[in-house]
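Renewal narrative, Specific Aim 1. Our central claim is that a sequence can be written position by position from structural information alone. The example that follows is taken directly from our test logs and has not been curated for this report. It begins with the structure tokens describing the chain, in the order in which they were read.
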């Protein structure tokens, strides 16, 4: 080789080494060269948490490889991305792909969590037929057949309607005409007249004479063998196995009661909210709202906010820290707070679904408090909604056409949703089990196994 050629070749390799080394050094420190504008920019990252773990991820169509030592993990981190908007796609065999446009910001990790790549077909198991209504309990499903008979599995249950059933409680309250019966599903053959039991315990243990009607029965948040009982003027706790009654608080004109975490909330016609903390045994009387008659109350932000839905469809919020009351929405039929208290979903009287972030999202770092929007789902008009247990990303919505779908409550584009079943009259989600009552009276269960 000619000496000059050798010198030029050596110089070229040196230059290539310097440029390549500089580029590698820039990348290692979180920088990249923007060739479009010929400038150095700081990079960002995308993090995804999803199920199933074996799903594949593509960014702008380019497959991303998960490190072999991380194959058992649910998540994937994609680093060294120039600031821009990227199309992310998650796919799994025999499943509906998930897509989202995500923005990468300099020096930040954009987190997207709780994503489910839903199977196109989920196996179902038939539980019963000729069913009109059903309720889930801690011990199983209670059904009402087309003849009006109640049953818990093979056991007939006294009563003609279900007054209280809860997925975390072993107690069931039924109604027959004006009489309520208390049934412990550990022994479903026995039914106790709740009115007579309440009057007896109230007079013998609390020394409170006089007949009082029980208007509300709710599950106790700590014990599956206890009930919360509400009359128009008082709140009680009943231990059904020890046969013990405790008075929790006095009231004047109760219109609604709700159990939220450790508290029982009582709404009164004058706008006062009674908050009974069952853990530390304290009672607070809060002048939270103007005179109204709430039909539904609840808590958000881990108890920092109290929500009340009036009979006219106005959704109000009271902030305990500031004492301020505000109107969140109007013409509302129902509302539901996400499991982690980060989002509020509302169903309008016209069947539309929307959501609002109550605090910065833990599942998407680009979702900040106050953001929200319409949930593009339930095209036929939603008649029922519920958050998927354990998820603040997916809302289960049943429309008037009988279509049940899992819908993303997310500000990103597109909003992903999947149809879970057709011809559905009612549904109930309990952990990873979804019970479906079809319009033909067939009751099925579907194991979601999505976490």
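The sequence written for that structure reads:
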């Amino acid at each position: 080789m000619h000496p000059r050629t050798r010198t030029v070749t050596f110089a070229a390799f040196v230059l290539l080494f310097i440029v390549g080394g500089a580029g590698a050094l820039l990348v290692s420190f979180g920088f990249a060269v923007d060739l479009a504008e010929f400038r150095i920019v700081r990079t960002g990252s995308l993090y995804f948490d999803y199920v199933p773990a074996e799903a594949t991820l593509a960014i702008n169509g380019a497959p991303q490889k998960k490190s072999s030592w991380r194959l058992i993990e649910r998540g994937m981190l994609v680093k060294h991305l120039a600031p821009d908007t990227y199309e992310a796609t998650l796919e799994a065999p025999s499943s509906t792909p998930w897509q989202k446009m995500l923005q990468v910001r300099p020096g930040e990790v954009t987190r997207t969590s709780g994503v489910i790549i839903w199977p196109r077909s989920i196996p179902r198991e038939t539980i019963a037929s000729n069913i009109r209504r059903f309720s889930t309990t801690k011990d199983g499903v209670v059904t009402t057949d087309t003849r009006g008979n109640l049953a818990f599995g093979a056991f007939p249950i006294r009563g003609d309607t279900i007054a209280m059933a809860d997925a975390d409680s072993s107690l069931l309250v039924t109604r027959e005409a004006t009489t309520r019966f208390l049934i412990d599903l550990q022994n479903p053959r026995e039914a106790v007249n709740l009115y007579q039991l309440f009057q007896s315990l109230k007079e013998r243990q609390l020394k409170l004479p006089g007949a009082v009607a029980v208007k509300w029965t709710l599950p106790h948040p700590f014990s599956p063998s206890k009930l919360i009982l509400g009359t128009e003027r008082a709140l009680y706790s009943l231990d059904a196995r020890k046969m013990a009654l405790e008075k929790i608080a006095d009231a004047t004109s109760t219109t609604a009661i709700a159990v939220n975490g450790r508290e029982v909330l009582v709404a009164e016609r004058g706008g006062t909210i009674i908050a009974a903390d069952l853990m530390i045994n304290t009672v607070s009387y809060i002048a939270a709202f103007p005179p109204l008659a709430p039909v539904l109350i609840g808590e958000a932000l881990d108890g920092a906010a109290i929500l009340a839905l009036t009979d006219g469809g106005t959704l109000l919020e009271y902030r305990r820290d500031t004492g301020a009351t505000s109107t969140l929405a109007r013409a509302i039929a129902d509302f539901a707070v996400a499991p982690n208290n980060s989002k509020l979903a509302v169903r309008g009287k016209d069947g539309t679904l929307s959501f609002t972030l109550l605090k910065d999202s833990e599942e998407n770092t680009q979702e900040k408090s106050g953001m929200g929007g319409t949930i593009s789902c339930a095209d036929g008009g939603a008649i029922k909604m519920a958050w998927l247990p354990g998820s603040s990303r997916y809302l289960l919505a049943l429309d008037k056409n009988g279509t049940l779908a899992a819908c993303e409550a997310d500000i990103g584009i597109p909003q992903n949703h999947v149809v879970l079943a057709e011809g559905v009259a009612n549904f109930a989600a309990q952990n990873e089990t979804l019970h479906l009552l079809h319009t033909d009276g067939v009751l099925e269960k579907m194991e979601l196994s999505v976490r």
